[in-house]
């Protein structure tokens, strides 16, 4: 009997460990940074790669970039046709800056492809993704997709963000319309879901001070 109990406990522990690992692989974090050359001049139109996968994100005219990356990412790279490629080890930082050295030999896209870099952005977009239809409800999607979010029943709280009136619950925008609840949204109906915070949410004014979930339906 004791042996069966021990086996059950071990099986439960391993199952939970696998589930936690899978959830961690699905979560993303926001990363931003500045890319410059040896003289400190911003490098624009630099392609951002994560774990050798092109993300579709490029640096702007100020040399800045920002994107969400899986929490388990290992490397972030910047590729410039003028300066070449530079790679940084990623350890979960929110800011990763790049300073390219003096110009040297620049590898072509074909050469980088032979080294394992993938220029098809769909490979990055699908990395670690589960189909929305695989989830039981929208709250399960939010738990796995966004870090720093707490869910109690059908109420969502974004940690670390409180509006001026003390409210900690986010605003919900579904297909451009404000809604009070998203509990009735079927995962099969979802096209995309994103969480805006801080400056990104400022376009919604005071109503978005505690964060904004922007949802698109099929």
TrEMBL record:
Kindly name one Pfam family recorded for this protein: Plug
How far does the signal peptide extend, from start to end residue? Answer: 1-21
Q: How does it sit in the membrane?
A: Multi-pass membrane protein
Naming one, the record's GO cellular component terms include: cell outer membrane
Gene3D superfamilies cross-referenced by the UniProt entry: Carboxypeptidase-like, regulatory domain, TonB-dependent receptor, plug domain
Please state the protein's primary subcellular location.
membrane
SUPFAM superfamilies tied to this protein: Carboxypeptidase regulatory domain-like, Porins
Matches recorded under PROSITE patterns: TONB_DEPENDENT_REC_3 (PS52016)
Q: Which UniProt keywords apply?
A: Cell outer membrane, Membrane, Signal, Transmembrane, Transmembrane beta strand, Transport
Q: Where in the cell is it found?
A: Cell outer membrane
In which domain of life is the source organism classified? Bacteria
| Residues in TonB-dependent receptor plug domain copies | 146-212
User: What family does this belong to?
Assistant: Belongs to the TonB-dependent receptor family.
This chain belongs to the protein called TonB-dependent receptor plug domain-containing protein
């Amino acid at each position: 009997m004791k042996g069966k109990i021990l086996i059950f406990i071990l099986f439960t522990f391993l199952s939970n460990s696998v589930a936690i690992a899978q959830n961690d692989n699905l979560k993303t974090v926001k990363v931003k940074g500045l890319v410059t050359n040896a003289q400190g001049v911003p490098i624009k139109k630099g392609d951002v790669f994560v774990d050798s996968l092109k993300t579709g994100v490029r640096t702007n005219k100020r040399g800045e970039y920002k994107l969400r990356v899986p929490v388990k990412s290992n490397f972030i790279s910047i590729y410039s046709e003028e300066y070449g490629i530079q790679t940084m080890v990623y350890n979960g930082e929110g800011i990763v800056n790049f300073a390219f050295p003096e110009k040297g030999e620049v590898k072509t896209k074909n050469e980088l492809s032979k080294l394992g870099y993938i220029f098809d952005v769909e490979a990055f977009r699908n990395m670690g993704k589960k189909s929305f239809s695989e989830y039981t409800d929208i709250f399960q999607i939010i738990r796995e997709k966004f870090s720093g979010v707490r869910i109690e029943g059908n109420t969502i709280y974004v940690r670390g963000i409180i509006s001026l009136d003390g409210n900690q619950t986010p605003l919900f925008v579904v297909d451009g319309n404000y809604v009070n609840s998203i509990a009735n949204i079927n995962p099969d109906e979802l096209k995309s879901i994103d969480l805006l915070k801080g400056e990104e949410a400022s376009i919604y004014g005071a109503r978005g001070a505690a964060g904004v979930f922007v949802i698109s339906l099929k």
